[in-house]
Design goal:
2 copies of one chain form a homodimer. Chain A contains 7 helices and no strands. Chain A has 159 residues and is mainly alpha-helical. Chain A has one domain: Up-down Bundle (Four Helix Bundle (Hemerythrin (Met), subunit A)), CATH 1.20.120. The longest helix of chain A has 25 residues. The first copy, chain A, is globular.
Chain lengths: 159, 159
Amino acid sequence: MDQQHIFIQMALNAWDMQISRTEKFLDAQSDADLQKEIAPGKNSLLYLLGHLIAVNDGMIGLFGAGERSYAHLDEAFIKNPDKSGLDMPDASTLRGDWKKSNAQLSALFKQMTPEDWFSRHTAMTDEDFAATPTRNKLSVLLNRTGHVAYHLGQLVLAK
Amino acid sequence: MDQQHIFIQMALNAWDMQISRTEKFLDAQSDADLQKEIAPGKNSLLYLLGHLIAVNDGMIGLFGAGERSYAHLDEAFIKNPDKSGLDMPDASTLRGDWKKSNAQLSALFKQMTPEDWFSRHTAMTDEDFAATPTRNKLSVLLNRTGHVAYHLGQLVLAK
């Protein structure tokens, strides 16, 4: 394995680790548990689940990999806070979306080449990217991995 | 910048981002605030601060970079949970340790070469490393970055 592949694999391992830890936590919760707040007056588990699905799905857009599957969740789970009064899918729908979204992202990541990973994401111009080549698709993955870890730290408090 | 330096820089950027977000949060808390729990019955801010210092400092050992500076925090902040009854340094001491630890780690990271980052850490044997070259020092940094993000997600709940 050359160094380029090693690094990509390291970033994918870090992603997989956070996703599988989150999955393990969610699998241990009943649908009723998902209605709970992580702490009194804070976000519900359901809101954070929808938030993670929508933010993770955003990578499909940033990577220029076609139509997003869960853009319809952005309004209730990214653009607005919990308890906004907006409709939310029920717990079992979001559980299914979570699994499907992860499978879709895994499949996408698997077919990406090193050149893809080190290319600019769609929210950057060519000029910006020339100045800061560290802001590539792989850096988006690192960033989203940290985002999952951040909210996983919150989810586990509901235990 | 060649690709090797680009991805080391990406990992360092991800680390710096989590540390500076945590720093910004801590700077906005009074010493009295640090006594608070992140949620009723959960860890105190002070415990999580000591925990982060001790775990981050552990990289000095894993990187074979000499004596650790904060190994004395392991007992109260890693090996035991909050409210163990063990002595804890006061808030202003831990704030100082946090800043000094981050400065020490930054200085260490800055002088590490790409060869250093892609070499095995001290908790791995040569045989293990030959089988899984992704488990190098840079993967430790990615992992510890996720660990900071996880606990930062908890710290901010005290707001």
